[in-house]
Amino acid sequence: MAGDGLLVRVRPPLGRLTAPQAIGLAEAARLHGNGLVDLTNRAALQLRGVTEQGHGPLLRHLVALGLADHDPAREARRNFLLAPDSSPGDDTESIALSLIAHIDELPQLPSKIGIAIDAGPAPCLAAVPADFRFERSEAGRLLLRVEGRPLGSPTSVETAARDLIALARWFLATGGGASGRAARHEAPLPTAADIAPAPSRPLSQLLAEASGPFHGIPFGQLDADSLIALAGKPHVTTLRLTPWRGLILEGGADRAEHASPDGLLRVDACPGAPACPQASVETRGLATRLAPLVEGSLHVSGCAKGCARQRPAGLVLTGRQGRFDLSRNARAGSPPETTGLTARQILALFGRP
Ligand code: SF4
Questions:
Q1: What is the mean pLDDT of the chain?
Q2: What pLDDT score was predicted for residue 260?
Q3: Architecture in CATH of 6-70+210-260
Q4: Of the CATH numbers 3.40.630.30, 3.30.1330.60, 3.40.190.10, 3.30.413.10, which one belongs to the domain with range 264-349?
Q5: What residue stretches are annotated with the Nitrite/Sulfite reductase ferredoxin-like domain (predicted)?
Q6: How far is the CA of 72 from the centre of ligand 1 (A)?
Q7: Which residue of 42, 161, 214, 292 is surrounded by the most CB atoms within 10 Å?
Q8: What is the per-residue pLDDT across 293-313, written as a single tens digit (0 to 9) for each?
């Protein structure tokens, strides 16, 4: 439950939507939610503003589209994030399919625990939140690594499910449930971990080699009509979810339009007012106007909670009683340098008349 109604998170199996699934999801967002679809930093989708009466029908709709498991226990365990450049038959998708086939044997882990399946030539998800990671070494060996540990243990496509299940059991048996996240869990590992993942691939290289153009989505939010329009673009076969505020339009040809997520990832802003009842200020319009005027990272937050960005940003504007507090190199709600600013005053401060 969020301030604007129920929030329903959707994790498409193998991280992609076919055109009929995208259209069905957009219709579901319109019918049962507020018509907006969020793309999360774990490459999942969120529908917001869902009513309690609409919740059951929405879940049935998602199951019928093949976007949710009919068994809630299985659905809760399927917290996987796939490298967005995986393709049918490669190691990333083969591991994902094996994990899905063995999902009933995977113990129920704390809800925030995520599994990154990142078995391409070198990792591309190292900066994306996850707790257990399938990766590849420079020498091409597959490894399974616990977040926070620099080295992983050997694994293979054939043993991946068994190895992950053993690691999940170790995590729970050694008190990982209380730690909450693997990076905070310091118990000795159950098996020798002596393989380093290869250095990460640059995002620009991954997107240049992807199976279609990257389509950036400001603040990671689009409306139902836009989602339907993307699914209907010429030659597009599937929409590939990424954790970088955008979709890869698989099969699409137009590479020029949104080539990089760099600008999108530099600016964070939560939904603000009027979408969130905690907010007393509008956020995303100000962030859009301010972004070209500031260098470095920018965070506009509707209140001190700072939902859109937990890390510090170069410039932070935090809403309070209808105005903004300004901080630098800080998180939302940090002690401000200046208080009580209006949006107009902030824009003037950065050179906009
Ligand atoms: S930061 Fe505050 S205003 Fe923004 S979404 Fe979170 S609770 Fe709402």
A1: 93
A2: 62
A3: Alpha-Beta Complex (3.90)
A4: 3.30.413.10
A5: 3-63
A6: 28
A7: 214
A8: 999 999 999 999 998 888 899
